[in-house]
Amino acid sequence: MAVEFTEENFDALAIKSDKLVMVDFWAEWCGPCRMVGPHVDELATEYDGKALVGKVNVDLHGGIAAQFGVRNIPTIVFLKNGELVDKVVGAVPKDQLAEKLDANI
Questions:
Q1: 33 noted as active-site residue
Q2: How far from 4 is each of 1, 55, 99, 103, CA to CA, in Å?
Q3: Do residues 14 and 23 make contact, with C-beta atoms less than 8 angstroms apart?
Q4: Of the listed 2, 22, 23, 30, which one is catalytic?
Q5: Facing residues of 4 across strands?
Q6: Which residue of 55, 84, 97, 101 shows the fewest CB atoms closer than 10 Å?
Q7: Does the reported pTM lie above 0.90?
Q8: 100 carries an active-site annotation
């Protein structure tokens, strides 16, 4: 299951992580987000120990979304050592997300 990032835990869990971090910016009302969500949860399990996979609800934690310039959802960002290394905007297939994870680990 994906980690639920909040404004309280984001720095400690995502920015300071020594692993690749994949962050799914989503909202409950977003149809494409609901399509991508199960893939994110599956990838969290499949990449456990290799990468940290989590989600940010933009309605609850808009400050994190603003920090990364997220204007459309779903947006998925990949962070390494706290720095943005890749980004995907829109609903994409699970294998495309897995490829991005593999390329950045």
A1: yes
A2: 9, 5, 22, 24
A3: yes
A4: 30
A5: 55
A6: 84
A7: yes
A8: no
Catalytic one of 20, 21, 23, 33: 33
Residue pLDDT tens, the chain, 105 long = 899 999 999 999 999 999 999 999 999 999 999 999 999 999 999 999 999 999 999 999 999 999 999 999 999 999 999 999 999 999 999 999 999 999 999
